[in-house]
Write a structure and sequence with these properties.
Shape: globular
Order of helices and strands: HHHHEEHHHHHHHHHH
Structural class: mainly alpha
Strand order of the largest sheet: 1-2
CATH class of the largest domain: Mainly Alpha
Oligomer: single chain
CATH architecture of the largest domain: Orthogonal Bundle
Radius of gyration: 31 Å
Strand content: under 5%
Length: 346
């Protein structure tokens, strides 16, 4: 190609805009020429949307149906749960309803007496006692394990330790309950000279084993999500490895670590079989970690099969289930809120 022939092509390339710009300009051009004396009417800019294939449209519809089905299931569960629980407080068949004050502030849980007593305070105290004690143990243990896996352990060590921690989460709760009954309870009873080894401490220790993998896994994810540039900047300023971990990495991942602890707390709060087997089953407010308790979940598991459908005892158990549902939902919403604030950097 000669130089004279190349000049027209170069001039055309300089004058003509690219195809994408020509499309944008064509979309933004005026739709019509306005009459004299009036401002021109411009067509609003419309973003071009890619045409979806039938497979993509089917995928979107499938995921939309799944999301609607999940929300519908949650709504139906709430309607059924709170609908059955409402009968206890509203009364039925000529029987007066139980007041909210008696339900939440009374320690007496005697559903089969005449007249029955439906006080949930002792059961609520039992759930909170084992949950708080297990969280106080599982929180530091799980977070320490998360820091070790994310910041300290080498690649080969991490390959062995992390699967072992995740495998611990797969142990059935009934197996851990048997360990608590057959091994931990006699040990506590003999070493501490207690009347029984089935108490808050025993249940807290077993729940710690169950909640630690959750806290460790979520905590490690939060620590590994911290940008490496922040850590490199700390090293460049002369900080040591431990100073970088405790003053840079951990504060940067504090929101995610808090979320991990709260979700571990929810894991302990919703556990049923372990507390049914090792908490002792005594419906009273504990005064120490060596007292036996009866949490909400163990009460539901132990008494639901003995009630008549539609009776007051049946409705009282649904009221306990609604209370447990609200508590679990509150902890999950708190974890979601902390996670959202952590991701947004506020």
């Amino acid at each position: 190609m000669t130089a004279d022939a190349a000049k027209p092509e170069a001039s055309r390339r300089d004058v003509e805009p690219p195809a994408a710009e020509r499309t944008t300009q064509a979309v933004a051009e005026p739709a019509s020429v306005a009459p004299a004396g009036q401002p021109p009417v411009e067509r609003p800019f419309v973003a071009l949307r890619p045409r979806l294939s039938p497979a993509e449209k089917g995928s979107r519809l499938f995921f939309l149906v799944c999301a609607v089905a999940a929300m519908g299931q949650m709504l139906l569960i709430m309607v059924f749960l709170f609908g059955e629980a409402a009968g206890l407080f509203l009364g039925q068949d000529g029987q007066p309803g139980v007041s909210l004050r008696d339900f939440f502030l009374s320690e007496d849980w005697y559903p089969t007496y005449d007249p029955p007593a439906f006080g949930a305070l002792a059961l609520l105290a039992g759930s909170l006692s084992v949950t708080v004690c297990s969280t106080l143990l599982a929180g530091p243990l799980g977070l320490g394990l998360a820091v070790y896996l994310a910041c300290v352990a080498g690649p080969r060590t991490r390959e062995w330790v992390k699967p072992a921690v995740e495998l611990l989460a797969a142990v059935p709760s009934v197996v851990l309950g048997l360990v608590g009954m057959a091994a931990v309870a006699p040990f506590l009873q003999n070493v501490l000279n207690l009347p029984t080894g089935l108490n808050v401490l025993n249940a807290s220790l077993i729940l710690t084993i169950m909640a630690t993998p959750t806290v460790a896994s979520l905590g490690e994810d939060a620590l590994t999500a911290v940008p490496k540039d922040i850590q490199d900047a700390s090293y460049a300023l002369g900080a040591t490895r431990w100073e970088t971990i405790w003053k840079v990495t951990v504060p940067a991942a504090l929101g995610g670590l808090s979320t991990a602890v709260i979700l571990g707390l929810g894991r302990s709060l919703g556990e049923t079989l372990v507390v049914l087997m090792v908490a002792g089953g005594a419906a009273h407010i504990p005064l120490s970690v060596f007292d036996s308790v009866r949490p909400l979940t163990s009460t539901l598991a132990a008494e639901m099969g003995e009630t008549a459908i539609g009776g007051r005892h049946y409705q009282a158990l649904f009221a306990l289930g609604a209370l447990l549902f609200v508590m679990t939902l509150a902890f999950n919403l708190l974890a979601w809120r902390l996670s959202r604030r952590w991701r947004s950097g506020r």
